[in-house]
Amino acid sequence: MARIGMLTGGGDCPGLNAVIRAVVRKGLMDGHTVFGYHYGWAGVLAAEGRELTQASTNGILPRGGTILGSSRTNPFSEGGPGIDGVRAGLERHGVDVLVPIGGEDTLGVAARLAEAGIPVVGVPKTIDNDLKGTDYTFGFQTAVQIATDAIDRLHTTAESHNRVMVLEVMGRHAGFIAAHAGMAGGGDVILVPERPFGIEEVCGHLRRRHALGHTFSIVVVSEGATLKEGSLSTAGAGQIDAFGHERLGGIAVTLEREIEERTGYETRMTILGHVQRGGTPTAFDRVLATRFGVAAAEAVTAGSSGVMVALHGTDIVQVPISEALGEPKTLDDKFFADAAVFFG
C-alpha cells in the first residue's frame, strides 16, 4: 500500500477540508497512510507537515478554509529548488504518491512532477470555476451563494436611496460568479472578463432604465472585467505573485466614480473580495469535494498518475492533468445571453 502526501495550494476555498477528510477516510480504508504538508508547496520544500488520521480529520467537513494551510509558493520560480527540492520533501516523509489540491498553478507544478516520474493525482480547486477538464469545481457554488446574498441585500438599500449599486466579485479570467450570481440576484448589468465593455454603454443602459421609471440599478462586475480600448484608462494593481499573476481588484471603484460623474445618479460600490472564499461550504460543494476526495484515493489505489479527478455530467472521472492547464475555461455565450434577457 502507498503513503499519500497531500497539500492544498493557492487561494483557500470552501470544500478543501471535505476533500482532505475524504482522501483520509478512503485512503485508510484501502490500507494507505496519509501525510499532510503544511502551506502548499512551501511545506513540501521544507518537509513540514503532520500525519493525517480519522481522528485528526473528524469534524472538519463543514469548516471553511483548509486545516493544512495554503500558499502560492512555486517550486519552479527563478532560483527555486525545482524537482530536486520536491523529491527531497517527499523522501523525508516516505511519500509515494502526491495528491495536490489546487488550481491551474498548483496543478501546473503537479504536471511537471508527473513528467519527471513522480506519481501524482490532482484534485481541481478554484472558486472561479475556470478550470478546463471538469464541469464544476467545488467552492464555486458557495461563492455564488455568497454573492447572491449580497445582491439581495444591496437591492433593499439601492431601492431605499434611489442609488446605483456596483458589486465587484471574483473572476480573474472568467465571469462565472458574476453571471450566475447576477442572474440569481436579478442584476441589471453584468460585466465579465470575456466581454470588454465601454463605460458609456453601461451609463447609457442605466439612463434607459431610469427613463423607464426604474429608480435604482444593480451592476455586478467581475474583478477581471476590462474596458474596451480607448473607453477609459485605468491602472492595474501592479503586484505580481510567484506564478506571475497580477493582483486584481478595484474595477468597482472606477465604475462608481465614472457612473456618478457621467449620469448624475448617486452610486455606491461594494467589493466582496475574500468574503467569497470564507465560511461554511454549501451542501453541493461538500458533496462534490467529498466525491473528488474519494475518487483521488481510488486513483492512488489503482496506480494512476498524471491524472486529475473531474466532474463530467454527474460522474466523477479521471482526466489527464494537462486538460486543466493552458487557456482557462470561459463563460458560455448562451448562458450570458440568457442572463442578458433580464438586464433592465
TrEMBL record:
It is found in: Cytoplasm. It comes from the Bacteria. SUPFAM superfamilies: Phosphofructokinase. Non-allosteric. Its cofactor is Mg(2+). The record marks D105 as: Important for catalytic activity and substrate specificity. Mg(2+) binds at E104. Pfam families: PFK. Residues 3-300 form the Phosphofructokinase domain. It catalyses: beta-D-fructose 6-phosphate + diphosphate = beta-D-fructose 1,6-bisphosphate + phosphate + H(+). GO terms for molecular function: 6-phosphofructokinase activity; AMP binding; ATP binding; diphosphate-fructose-6-phosphate 1-phosphotransferase activity; fructose-6-phosphate binding; identical protein binding; metal ion binding; monosaccharide binding. Keywords: Cytoplasm, Glycolysis, Kinase, Magnesium, Metal-binding, Transferase. The active site is at D128 (proton acceptor). One of its GO terms (biological process) is canonical glycolysis. Pathway: Carbohydrate degradation; glycolysis; D-glyceraldehyde 3-phosphate and glycerone phosphate from D-glucose: step 3/4. PANTHER family: ATP-DEPENDENT 6-PHOSPHOFRUCTOKINASE 3 (PTHR13697:SF52), PHOSPHOFRUCTOKINASE (PTHR13697). Homodimer or homotetramer. Catalyzes the phosphorylation of D-fructose 6-phosphate, the first committing step of glycolysis. Uses inorganic phosphate (PPi) as phosphoryl donor instead of ATP like common ATP-dependent phosphofructokinases (ATP-PFKs), which renders the reaction reversible, and can thus function both in glycolysis and gluconeogenesis. Consistently, PPi-PFK can replace the enzymes of both the forward (ATP-PFK) and reverse (fructose-bisphosphatase (FBPase)) reactions. This is Pyrophosphate--fructose 6-phosphate 1-phosphotransferase. The lineage of its organism: Bacteria, Bacillati, Actinomycetota, Thermoleophilia, Solirubrobacterales.
